[in-house]
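[step 3/7] fold_predict: job queued, chain A
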Amino acid sequence: MAEPKLVNRTKLISSLDNALVEPLNELSKKTRVPKSRLIDEAIEDLLKKYEKRLAE
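[step 4/7] structure written:
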């Protein structure tokens, strides 16, 4: 079966520290926010944190 076409997203394969997996799963479950959205938010926050360094 073919994978669904992603229009507004890009598939990214990565790994996550074992200690972060369960807390991420719990946060997603409790907030009912998909893990991909939580990761998007975390990366946005990280980019804002380093924004000045990236502009140099």
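[step 5/7] annotate
The mean pLDDT is 92.
Helices lie at 18-31, 35-49, 51-55.
exit 0
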